[in-house]
Amino acid sequence: MRILFFLYFLALPAVLFSQNDSREEGSKRSFSERLKGGKQKDTGKVASIDMYRFVTLERDTTYLDTSLTIEREYSHNYLRRDLFGLLAFPNEGQAYNTLQYSLTDYSPFPEMGFTAKHFNFLKVNQILYPSVATPVTELFFKSSLGRGQEVDSYFTANLSPNLNLSIAYKGLRSEGKYINQLSSTGSFRFTMSYHTTSKRYLIKSHFTSQDALNEENGGITTTEDFESEDPDYKNRQRLQVYLTDAESFLRAKRIFVDHVFRVNPSEAANNLYVTHQLNYENKMFQYYQPTLISAVGTQAVNRFGDAIVTSDLKDQTHYNKMYNKAGLIYENTTLGKFQFFVDDFRSNFYYNRILIKDEGVIPSTLSRKINNVGGQYEYWKNKWHGKFLLSKSISKQSISNVEAKLNYDLNDDFQFVFGYQNVSKLPDDIYNLYQSEYEAYNWFNNFENEKINVLSSTAVTPWFEASLQLSALTDHLYFENTATDDSQQIVTPNQFGGTIKYLSLKLSKELTFGKFALNNTVLYQKADQTEAVLNVPDLVTRNTLYFSNHFFQKALFLQAGITLNYFTNFYANDYSPVIGAFFVQQKKQIGNYPNLDFFINAKIQRTRVYFKAEHFNSAYTGNNYYSAPNNPYRDMMLRVGLIWNFFN
């Protein structure tokens, strides 16, 4: 938080500085221009909004948006994105249960694991590289649940037309409403992008330092007390929880560099580029539990089974990764862009000891060394844009990836996207190796690669937006609870040897009636499987009825409405704090409850103010709302927020 306040004071005087203007030109740009996000042009002292660009690693360009729309209402949360398909846990900064499985991204490379703890951690492809005409600052604030707040401060400036720097910090402290539920997270980001005047050399680089501390209560022990609506339990601190002093902590640091050099001195119809990408990450996950015995009613229960120690249990997992990718790109204005690359992936997932058990030896380290060769072809002409990628390992640890994506933009009203992916993915490291002071949470496996086939399509029309996904998952990995006692969690990894067929169809449409609008999103999904491994609700829907209008000679823009979120009953995954991951369960269904939010948002110049009564119907529709089998969803809460953009 001290860093955050420093950034605020740093950002305020920065708006006094001015810079050269920049503007994107032309619909068809060379590779180096798309790397930068557009050409530079001196247009005088007035900077238009399209001179404030934000470029992704995939070279997609967006612009600074200070509007107040229903999409901005959906994304005004701690993750700063639309949460449709995710179900939040009781406190901010905790995990999210998955309602829409098609949100999952697939990479053939293995990751660390602890996936439930990574929702707030920004990935490489989520970092934006700005190019702005004048310094830009964005300040984000939202009240949290209980004492605390969530804030995000962002500042960027072009020190010259060729060089941009940005710095940001996002912080959260939220006490929560239940015992032992505090969340405290931080995310520091720094980016740098530079290109020579001739655009012969371009570089994008960033550094991130992210951490998340969560008190872990393991959920409430007696759900009947919560569901009874007994006035004595309106104070949620009176509900008994499994863990009163446990906590988890995840820390991650990353250095990333992506740069390109054009071999020919000046741009021509034929260009040759040399590319290199470096990604170094270091992570540490810790689970700490001073008191091992949990009280369930009047009984004492060892929630996670027998332990090697009697108190002050502390599990630490360390992980580091080094990824290098080098390639050549040949670009022809007629034929398209051809890329050939080789990469080197090395990782270490390790502990500070070797365990010798009756079942065998559990090593201290799981190391990976993977080398890939691959190629990518990109073509764009008129209304068509296609990208095709093929990569395969040439090392002992086998992985492969085939991707194809085709965009067709008929006009401003009709756009179509078709995609296909075939992945042979190594298991995340946590499935193959884990060590804990809990005796049952020690394993060493050699699971098969997961095989994933995904066929997807998206259509944008004047009548509706639709997305369809068909997936086939073979050798799917998951966690399951093997405990016979309902009060215990003995979570172990498993692999489903068959094939899971998954279908999802999402439709979106907004209907307008003068100053009123009805925004609708409906998701239907189905999983065909011989064992209940992939569990999702059949139907998820979000419907928002809202009013919007200008007031006071258009000095104020007001937006007010009600949002209904609903999903059908299903066996939702449960959460294990020991491994920071979700596991499959077949004992309790959740869902089939309406969740109503009332909001009033206002925009004055470039300042947007948000007021919301979240889940205001909780006191009238019964206490049957859950995020996971032992974790109730949030009660009614009044929250206020602010986003303030300012620049010269």
Topology:
Layout: H1 2-14, H2 31-36, E1 52-55, E2 61-63, H3 70-74, E3 86-88, E4 96-98, E5 129-132, E6 136-143, E7 148-160, E8 163-174, E9 183-195, E10 201-216, H4 223-227, E11 246-262, E12 270-289, E13 293-296, E14 299-302, E15 313-332, E16 336-350, E17 355-357, E18 360-362, E19 365-381, E20 384-393, E21 400-409, E22 415-425, H5 429-432, E23 433-434, E24 443-444, E25 450-460, E26 465-481, E27 491-513, E28 516-528, E29 539-551, E30 556-567, E31 574-576, E32 581-583, E33 595-604, E34 607-614, E35 626-628, E36 631-632, E37 637-647
Antiparallel strand pairs: 1-2, 1-5, 3-4, 6-7, 6-37, 7-8, 8-9, 9-10, 10-11, 11-12, 12-15, 13-14, 15-16, 16-19, 17-18, 19-20, 20-21, 21-22, 22-25, 23-24, 25-26, 26-27, 27-28, 28-29, 29-30, 30-33, 31-32, 33-34, 34-37, 35-36
Question: What is the structure about, briefly put?
Answer:
This protein has 648 residues and is mainly beta. The chain has five helices and 37 strands. It has a 22-stranded antiparallel barrel.
Mean pLDDT: 91
- Beta strands, count: 37
Helix coverage percent of residues?
Answer: under 10%
Helix/strand/pairing class, anyone?
mainly beta
The amount of beta strand, in percent, is: over 45%
Gyration radius, rounded: 26 Å
Give the termini separation. Answer: 27 Å
Total helical elements: 5
Instruction: Report the uncertain regions.
Output: 1-32, 34-44
What general outline do the C-alpha atoms trace?
Answer: globular
Question: Would you give an account of this structure?
Answer:
The protein is 5% helix and 53% strand. The chain has 648 residues and is mainly beta. The relative contact order is 0.13. The model is unreliable at 1-32 and 34-44 (pLDDT under 50).
